[in-house]
Design a protein that fits this description.
This protein has 757 residues and is mostly beta strands. Helix content is 7%, strand content 56%.
């Protein structure tokens, strides 16, 4: 669309919600403002690009307490996460999400900060503070963002230091459950060409689960983060340097056995809160250079360095037995460089070309510690014979006396190291064929190289519970390479200045990888014997790359002098060799599931029916299924042809309505929010039998904003105190019928005070 811009368009992206929260309404003109995004590597109106996109500005993020990607997912139809907590949960877009607790698979949703890829889940779920905007792109973004964006991408843009401006902001919030948050920002000019910006962030929330076995409360959240950035600007050069650091203790994703004798906010675990936690550090450095080579040409350089380490621990059998503990220690370093040449002349054609490269070093130690005597005793009780107290007697009870006695305390471990690197070359061209018709063609070639080593320590002939019946005295190593060419073809047709029709064909790609929990063993090995895999011919288990093609049509429109925006899109995609994670015993295994088909419809409506009322309504329907699964995958995971994908939420919706009273010295407002996500199957359950129930959340905010740059807001979240039992786990421990992963926040209320200068 050759789009008209009103005289008061915003310089930043405006969220898809209320006027008061986002500053999206021009009170004088009484119309919705333009939403500017950089999804296509250049600043454009969101109404002009052939991509289904949701954009949120920093003011909304602060007001609605959207502090990370998981919380943002709840307010975005078609996007979800396993829970609001944890480094480990993956983001799901249009029913697609793959993640592994080891070093095997990466998410199919790429997360980026200032153009730098944030890496795997341990480093990607960072706090959103002092944010300019967040853009959520739905559908494969292989040409624009490269690998690991086969389902979509989340692009985070932080506020940059502003030349010739001394300003700052202080936000303080307090609430129930020990909720406390504060943000401080200071922008300082250092010279005519240089400015600095410093932002600090602190968040604390008390845990809302009681461990009835130990008497401790668990699930505390403590986050301390900071960012220091500099902006240098001349007539032809703009440089932005940003450094960030975050130390965080996440609310723990708790395994909880279904047990009617305890309250919903209680668990039973022998483990202390020192083990049941999700804790880590994240750091980053980025340098963005924009160089104007001439009136038509510009050069962009993006240099990034990121790293993280975290500890994650859970009580895997979710009982008062000192039975099974699962622990992960992971570290990562990530370095990247991108160069892009951009041409925007007066003619009908514009284009950009670029090259990118990355290097990643990642390691993880995964430990499974369990006491087989206690687990066997619990199993015996389950079968109705409390006299059986050890594995040896249980084997006799079952008629397997030759298996020998129980072995007591066990410790299995997987020690993995990965050294990955890759590069890509890409280009994108836009041709204004006529005043109404626009053609976009883009392509990217990507090559990924992966060196991986794995050492398993698990060997005992007399095994009862899940463990690896082999070990490796030496690490087993392998090297593989994957490559892919992704493309995008889009047609934009402007019926007039207010209505854009588009059709897009796009592809995406994610490199293959290696398993973190097992080897491919020769057919001759004895599964009932202790085997040294490194001497018995064991090889690393691997899975192939996944590829996707997506077909999409849509409409973006403005009505009633831009007081209404109505956008809709319909899509169909097909994955080849999609990477899928499933539970195998106590471990998560990643394999290629085969062919997956999906389709859906998305609707986005923004309206200003009066000067005082601002309404946002988002609707999304998605359906994904296993159209042609691999037989060996279904044998291992229990999947079936035509089965639903884990995490496919089906229908989801978001509603935000704000009524504003404009006063002589400020304004008062009341905002009502309602979010809904349909039921879905549990993470790792490919049998389509374990269902996570639907979830809805209602929030309200009442506040006053003065003309003197201060505001106060009373808020309540999850007002109906909805409860979501997260992912049901098909763990065959014979101690209870099922387990659930919980972590949804209860009802909370509080007050926020903000001051800007």
């Amino acid at each position: 669309m050759i789009h008209k811009y009103n005289e008061n368009k915003l310089a930043i992206a405006v969220c898809a919600t209320s006027a008061m929260l986002c500053g999206a309404v021009n009170a004088d003109a009484w119309k919705l403002e333009e939403v500017l995004v950089t999804a296509q590597k250049r600043e454009q109106s969101s109404q002009d690009i052939p991509i289904s996109i949701s954009a949120f500005n920093g003011e909304l993020m602060r007001s609605a307490q959207l502090d990370n990607a998981k919380e943002l997912a709840l307010v975005t139809p078609g996007v979800s996460g396993n829970s609001a907590d944890s480094y480990l949960d993956a983001i799901n877009i249009r029913g697609i999400s793959s993640n592994s607790y080891g070093l095997a698979a990466e998410s199919s949703v790429g997360i980026y900060a200032n153009g730098v890829y944030l890496g795997r889940a341990g480093g990607a779920v960072t706090s959103y503070f002092d944010i300019d905007r967040v853009e959520i792109l739905k559908g494969p973004q292989g040409t624009l963002f490269g690998r690991n964006a086969s389902a979509g991408a989340i692009s985070l843009h932080t506020n940059k230091a502003v030349i010739d401006e001394f300003s700052g902001r202080v936000d303080v919030g307090v609430g129930s459950d020990g909720y406390f948050t504060t943000t401080g920002v200071l922008n300082t000019p250092l010279s005519d060409n240089l400015a600095s910006r410093m932002a600090i962030y602190r968040r604390e929330v008390d845990g809302y689960f009681e461990n009835v076995t130990t008497g401790e409360r668990i699930g505390d959240e403590k986050v301390t983060a900071g960012r220091l950035s500099f902006t240098f600007k001349t007539e032809s050069v703009t440089a932005n340097l940003a450094m960030d650091y975050e130390d965080r203790l996440n609310p723990t994703v708790v395994d909880r056995a279904i047990d009617s004798s305890i309250a919903r906010n209680e668990i039973r675990s022998e483990q202390s809160k020192d083990t049941l936690k999700d804790q880590g550090e994240v750091w980053g450095l980025s340098l963005n250079l924009e160089i104007a080579l001439s009136e038509d040409y510009s050069l962009t350089s993006i240099t990034g360095a990121r790293g993280h380490n975290y500890f994650y621990g859970e009580d895997f059998e979710a009982s008062e037995l000192d039975g099974y503990t699962y622990i992960i220690n992971q570290e990562q370093e990530y370095y990247s460089q991108e160069f892009r040449l951009d041409y925007q002349g007066d003619g009908p054609v514009s284009w950009f070309v670029g090259v990118s490269a990355y290097e990643e070093k990642v390691s993880a130690l995964i430990e499974q510690t369990y006491d087989e005597d206690e687990m066997c005793a619990g199993t015996a009780i389950y079968y109705g014979d409390s006299s059986i107290t050890d594995c040896g007697s249980l084997y006799v009870y079952w008629g397997y006396a030759d298996y020998g006695p129980g072995i007591g305390q066990r410790n299995d471990s997987a020690d993995a190291d990965g050294d990955y690197d890759g590069w890509g070359i890409y280009g994108d061209t836009t041709w204004n064929v006529t005043e109404q018709l626009e053609l976009i063609v883009g392509a990217r070639y990507t090559e990924d190289n992966r060196d991986f080593g794995l050492k398993l320590d698990s060997h005992n002939k007399n095994y009862f519970w899940y463990n690896w019946p082999y070990y490796s005295s030496e690490p087993i190593e392998d090297t593989k390479k994957w490559d892919n060419t992704s493309y995008r073809i889009a047609l934009n047709y402007s019926l007039n200045d207010d209505i854009l029709l588009y059709a897009t064909v796009s592809t995406g790609y994610k490199a293959g990888g290696f398993e973190t929990f097992g080897y491919d063993m020769p057919a001759s090995y004895d599964q009932e014997s202790s085997v040294d895999a490194s001497k018995a011919g064991g090889r690393l288990s691997s899975f192939d790359q996944e590829e996707v093609i997506n077909y999409e049509v849509g409409m973006k429109s403005e009505w009633w002098d831009n007081r209404i925006q109505f956008n809709t899109s319909a899509y169909y995609y097909q994955f080849e060799d999609m990477q899928a994670a499933y539970l195998q015993g106590a471990s998560v295994t990643t394999k290629n599931v085969g062919e997956v088909d999906g389709s859906g419809l998305e609707i986005d409506l923004r309206a200003l029916p009066t000067e005082n009322i601002n309404v946002y309504l988002g609707l999304a329907w998605a359906d994904s299924n296993l159209s042609d699964p691999n037989d060996d995958f279904c044998v291992a995971s229990g999947c079936k042809k035509g089965g639903r994908l884990p995490g496919d939420i089906g229908f989801s919706s978001a509603f935000i309505g704000t009524y504003t009273f404009y006063l002589s010295r400020g304004e008062t407002f009341i905002t009502l929010e309602n979010y809904y996500q349909d039921e879905t199957t549990a993470y790792g359950d490919w049998s389509d039998t374990l269902i996570r129930g639907s979830y809805k959340e209602t929030n309200m905010r009442i506040g006053y904003k003065s003309n003197d740059d201060w505001s106060i807001t009373l808020w309540g979240t999850n007002l109906t105190d909805e409860w979501m039992e997260g992912d049901q786990s098909p763990r065959d421990f014979n101690l209870t019928d099922k387990f659930v992963r919980v972590g949804q926040q209860p009802r909370r209320y509080g007050v926020d005070v903000k001051y800007e200068f």
